[in-house]
TrEMBL record:
GO molecular function, one term: zinc ion binding
Gene: 106090808
Positions of the RING-type domain: 8-49
SMART domains associated with the record: DM9 (SM00696), RING (SM00184)
PROSITE patterns: ZF_RING_2
Taxon lineage: Eukaryota, Metazoa, Ecdysozoa, Arthropoda, Hexapoda
Xref: SUPFAM superfamilies: RING/U-box
Metal-binding is among the record's keywords: yes
Family annotation (Pfam families): DM9, zf-RING_2
Source organism per UniProt: Stomoxys calcitrans (Stable fly)
Keyword Magnesium in annotation: no
Annotated protein name in UniProt: RING-type domain-containing protein
InterPro entries registered for this protein in UniProt: DM9_repeat, Znf_RING, Znf_RING/FYVE/PHD
Length: 246
């Protein structure tokens, strides 16, 4: 059995070629069983104590074969760092309650019943539809085909916990106009981008999609899909572009 001269930071055992090894979003590596047991107790990285959730950890495969001398070169890690920052879409885990969601998801506000809702998207009829996730309903409400659909499978939540370099805002637009820095959060089956939008109806803010081809925002309401010519679009603005130049 091959081993590496590298220790797991939790159990202090060397990694072997039969181990399942996972990396956190902050880049620290542990045995799967050690890390997942830790995360049942604490939502922090065991090594640096940065925020860490189980769904943000990824399995990695280590090379246990010796490298040639010409392969032992330092690589630019900036690309890796970029991949470990920013926003991402993650599959819904039914263990995600409000307390956990508030640590990483983009919080929209509340629905008409006062339940918390979060930025999400769902896969339906070939489309990836901007929508909102309701933990109380255990699904996303998505507008499609003149109806409101409760989707409970193939749904994702927007994770912004590592996106400190950007700011999220709502910007008003109308009649199919798209604000600068609008965040594309879905697309149609034929590849047209869709955007997260919200619009007012009977005093309530409803969350759905902007479909520019039809110059309307579409939002779920009851069992229906409502169309709105006046709406707000979710934009993502890099803090770097707002900072003064040197």
């Amino acid at each position: 059995m091959s081993t590496l001269n590298v220790l797991c930071g939790i159990c202090s055992e060397f990694y072997t070629n039969t181990d399942k090894i996972y990396v956190t979003r902050c880049g620290h590596v542990f045995h799967q069983q050690c890390l997942f047991h830790w995360l049942q107790v604490s939502h922090t990285c065991p090594q640096c104590r940065d925020g860490c959730l189980r769904h943000q950890c990824r399995r990695i495969y280590l090379n246990f074969e010796p490298l040639r001398e010409d392969e032992l070169k330092c690589e630019d890690t900036s690309e890796i760092s970029n991949k470990l920052s920013g926003y991402e879409w993650i599959a819904v885990d039914w263990e995600m309650d409000d307390e956990l969601l508030k640590t990483f998801a983009f919080h929209f506000g509340t629905d008409e019943n006062g339940n918390n809702i979060y930025c999400a998207r769902g896969f339906h009829k070939g489309d990836i539809i901007p929508a909102y996730y309701s933990p109380s309903k255990r699904g996303v409400l998505a507008p499609w085909g003149f109806k409101s659909h409760l989707l409970t499978h193939n749904i994702e939540i927007l994770d912004i916990s590592c996106d400190g370099a950007a700011e999220y805002k709502w910007v008003h637009a109308s009649n199919g106009d798209l604000p600068e820095n609008a965040l594309a959060t879905g697309h149609t089956s034929y590849g047209e981008p869709l955007y997260t939008a919200r619009a007012e109806h009977n005093g309530n803010l409803l969350y759905g999609k902007l479909h520019r081809q039809y110059k309307m925002a579409y939002v779920p309401y009851g069992d229906e899909e409502l169309c709105k010519s006046q709406y707000e679009v979710l934009v993502r603005i890099s803090k770097l572009q707002n900072s003064p130049s040197n």
